[in-house]
Amino acid sequence: MLAYNVAVVLWGAYVRATGSGAGCGNHWPLCNGVVVPPSPALSTIIEFTHRATSGLDVLLVAVLIVWAFRVSPPAHAVRLGSVLSGVFLTTEALIGALLVKLEHVARNASVGRAYSLSAHLINTLTLLACLTLTVWWAIGGGRLRWRRREFWPVAAGTALIVATSLMGAITALGDTLFPASSLAAGFRQDFDRAASIFVRLRLFHPLLAVSTAGYLAFWGVAARARLPRVKPLVDSLLVLLAAQLTAGVLNLLLLAPVWLQMIHLLLADLVWIAFVLLSASRLQDAAIPADLRVDEMGAAVDRLERASPK
């Protein structure tokens, strides 16, 4: 389900990058007023495919919830993860419908689109996080626990990734709405005060991306030094960060072709998933290990037995 939702997210970005968001008009859930559009244009096929895969997603998450409740005991965390995935998939669909009804698609360059786009992205990241945690709990990961020392670095990383993702989405939208003919022309657009806000914000995305990557790399290396068993997760995160920065540079130099935008977004989703898994490991490990609690309980029982006349 996690992999399937990443694919749905990528196709949604393809809808935006190709300007096909209005392929079904402002109708929802119907497409141009019908269930299956006859003789559709290419933009309609792209948009209708996204809606169809999203509709299938709803059914699959429903199966996931039922499955989680059947195979896990009461109060197991995997039940919570599956239910939260269902909740945020529902809000994902509602926000998508709102985008269509408000016509915040295709060539719409209004400021309102930035807000709706941001809400959509934050919900998408939350959905992917819930599905990732469902995987984590399904394979035996422990519940997350509040520990200030571990929580605030994770919260800072989350805020940086979300901010970078939002700026990246706005940058991608600016590249779609106002494509540059060359790298030099793109830079002139960035500094043009008359340019759209989607264009003038593009300068901040690379700076924020590098800062976020630096923080995550430092945080990951520190985690690996403290908890050697998280080394595979940290190594994966570092490789993904390097690949993501490389894709970002190529995206800039090649003027953001659609295929490279898809790779860039895929890497961003994988960085987020790796971060969520590593964060879950850190927050779990911040709690008292289970074997230590058992030892302490055994010692307490021994003391009680020695003190008892029986």
What's the overall average pLDDT, rounded? 89
Q: Sheet bearing the most strands, described? A: none
Oligomer: single chain
Question: Which sequence of SSEs, written as H and E, runs from N to C?
Answer: HHHHHHHHHHH
Structural class: mainly alpha
* Rg computed from alpha carbons, rounded to a whole number of angstroms: 23 Å
Total domains: 2
Overall geometry: globular
Strand portion, in percent? Answer: under 5%
Poorly predicted parts: 286-295
Portion in helices: over 70%
Verbal overview:
The protein is an all-alpha fold. It folds into 2 domains: 1-141; 144-289. The protein contains 11 helices and no strands. It has helices spanning 2-17, 42-71, 77-101, 111-138, 148-177, 183-190, 197-200, 204-226, 231-253, 258-285, 290-307. Helix 4 crosses helix 5 and helix 9 runs antiparallel to helix 10 (258-285). It is globular.
